[in-house]
């Protein structure tokens, strides 16, 4: 832990800062040139810090993106894609724990077939906005929510519900 002087508590001593460095410049410099350390552990530590964080040469050195809140929400939606559409089925790879480290987001380039294109009104900024605006997904969500409400409703609720036509006439007769 760096020691601080009693006269200036905000300043950290120079000796403490030098001990925290990976290599000590006065020992590593020979005639003003950097000579790599002889200890392989120190050398590996220096090399690890200089290597860029990428997916590797097999993935064309794809960099790890910075995770923003919007990007995090989009990743969660992609992870839960099997719940969004009941007709599509996906492999178990979607259920992996944690988020992916290396990925890229892009835009879809449309084909020449005109009816399959999205209009400007249908294009949204995020995946979440696109799913919320889609009417087929809205109907599916409403139906599923109603099914859940039906399951959780108490059992004696049905006898109080007036079914059929002219319920207001029957209710009026009961009030007399």
UniProtKB/TrEMBL annotation:
Residues 145-161 have a biased composition (Basic and acidic residues). Pfam families: Fcf2. Its main location: nucleus. One of its GO terms (molecular function) is RNA binding. InterPro entries: Fcf2/DNTTIP2, Fcf2_C. Residues 162-176 have a biased composition (Basic residues). GO terms for cellular component: nucleolus. It comes from the Eukaryota. Residues 143-176 are annotated as: Disordered. One of its GO terms (biological process) is RNA processing. Residues 52-144 form the Fcf2 pre-rRNA processing C-terminal domain. This is Fcf2 pre-rRNA processing C-terminal domain-containing protein. It comes from Dioscorea zingiberensis.
């Amino acid at each position: 832990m760096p020691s601080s002087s009693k006269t200036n508590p905000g300043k950290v001593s120079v000796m403490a800062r030098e001990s925290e460095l990976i290599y000590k410049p006065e020992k590593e410099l020979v005639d003003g040139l950097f000579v790599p350390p002889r200890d392989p552990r120190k050398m590996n530590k220096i090399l690890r810090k200089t290597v860029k964080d990428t997916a590797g040469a097999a993935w064309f050195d794809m960099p790890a993106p910075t995770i923003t809140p919007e990007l995090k929400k989009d990743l969660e939606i992609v992870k839960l894609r099997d719940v969004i559409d009941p007709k599509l089925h996906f492999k178990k790879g979607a259920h992996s724990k944690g988020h992916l480290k290396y990925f890229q987001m892009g835009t879809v380039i449309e084909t020449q077939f005109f009816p399959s294109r999205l209009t400007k009104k249908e294009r949204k900024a995020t995946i979440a906005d696109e799913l919320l605006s889609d009417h087929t997904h809205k109907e599916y969500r409403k139906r599923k929510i109603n099914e859940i409400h039906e399951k959780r409703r108490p059992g004696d609720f049905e006898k109080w519900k007036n079914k059929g036509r002219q319920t207001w006439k029957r209710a009026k007769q009961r009030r007399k």
